[in-house]
Design a protein that fits this description.
The protein is an alpha/beta fold and 328 residues long. The protein is globular, with a radius of gyration of 21 Å. Helix 1 (24-40) packs parallel to helix 2 and helix 4 packs parallel to helix 5. It is built from 9 helices and 14 strands. It has a 6-stranded mixed beta sheet with strand order 5-4-3-2-1-14, covered by helices on one side. The chain has one domain: Carbon-nitrogen hydrolase (Nitrilase/N-carbamoyl-D-aminoacid amidohydrolase, 4-Layer Sandwich), CATH 3.60.110.10. The structure holds 4-methylsulfanyl-2-ureido-butyric acid.
């Protein structure tokens, strides 16, 4: 008896800028328009960017963080996002959405602020929620910057790490923006058999700490996702919020990457734009079962630094050699 097809038709729904004054309702209309285009192109799943409901608010600092509470979702769905859930269910399309989450107070009365992405099945059920692990930028106001990137003020790192969930006939994981630069993100999911990783991002072209990297933003974006896909035998769907948002230009280059590391679709603009690829999840096995047969070839016993150490540590012997001293 033949096996059912494991081809998932994925739409990567890039968004152009969302300005400060744009309402949630107007953004949800844009998301619904992309969903309808996706339906016309037979998509099973549509992936939206990081913080897809608002402007990228960590570019402004407020002394009292509660003044920023209006940028966060207190429930999902909410009255404003319910139309997206309703339309997706009506069309029979699943979706993945990034947003800022403000939790209910916990037992100690503490609220948590996360940079969150969810995965919703075709029947409208929320399959999984992921909290961004690698939070970039800075904790405090840095008035000399042309714009802030205060994600470390607005979000706490997700304590749960990287999960993988059975959905759409395969194994799905999520990561958010800066997570894609870290090989650990992919490998944590790779070790759970992931077959498709969904990643939304907001990447300013201008990198304030080292502007020599500005011209390389597109190169680094594809470099990390292509290598992460190949080294773990997985599809990767990277989706941008691009274009000039409140004066800050952000990278587009939304792309769908095959387990071979090849880009199979990429956006041409930095505006709202849907790209589609039919992704055969069985293609992952070509890599997972050969060069990257983890069970056969990995050597975790010699990788202990990866979990035991955070920063790099230069040995006393090497320091002495570099300083031209003997270490006897
Ligand atoms: N949103 C996000 O994670 N952006 C980062 C840029 C951080 S620069 C301070 C990224 O990795 O693209």
């Amino acid at each position: 008896m033949s096996q059912p097809s494991r081809v998932v038709v994925v739409g990567a729904a890039q968004l152009g800028p969302i300005q400060k004054a744009d309402t949630r309702a107007s953004v949800v209309e844009r998301l619904i328009s992309l969903l309808r285009q996706a339906k016309e192109r037979s998509c099973d799943l549509v992936v939206f960017p990081e913080l897809a409901l608002t402007t990228f608010f960590p570019r402004w600092f407020v002394d009292d963080i509660s003044e920023a509470d209006h940028w966060y979702e207190k429930s999902m769905p909410s009255a404003e996002t319910q139309p997206l859930f309703d339309e997706a269910k009506k069309l029979g399309i699943g979706f993945s959405l990034g947003y800022a989450e403000l939790t209910e107070p916990d037992d100690q009365g503490v609220v948590h602020r996360f940079n969150t992405q969810i995965l919703v099945e075709r029947d409208g059920s929320v399959v999984a929620k992921y909290h961004k692990v690698h939070i970039p930028g800075h904790e405090h106001h840095e008035p000399n910057r042309p714009f802030q990137h205060a994600e470390r003020y607005y979000f706490e790192p997700g304590p749960e790490g990287f999960g993988v969930w059975a959905a759409f006939g395969g194994l799905f994981g999520m990561m958010i923006c800066n997570d894609r630069r870290w090989p650990e993100s992919y490998r944590e999911m790779g070790l759970q058999g992931v077959e498709m990783i969904l990643c939304g991002y907001n990447t300013p072209i201008h990198y304030v700490p080292d502007p020599s990297q500005d011209i390389l933003q597109g190169f680094h974006n594809s470099l990390v996702m292509q290598s992460g896909a190949y080294q773990n035998g997985t599809w990767v769907v990277g989706v941008a919020k691009g274009g000039v948002e409140e004066g800050v230009d952000s990278l587009g280059q939304t792309c769908i990457v095959a387990p071979s590391g090849q880009i199979v679709a990429q956006t041409l603009t930095t505006a709202d734009e849907l790209i589609v690829a039919a992704c055969d999840l069985d293609w992952c096995e070509r890599y997972k079962g050969t060069l990257f047969n983890f069970d056969r070839y990995r050597r975790p016993e010699v990788y202990t630094r990866i979990t035991q150490q955070r920063g790099s540590v230069i040995s006393t012997a090497n320091k002495a050699t570099l300083e031209g001293k003997s270490h006897d």
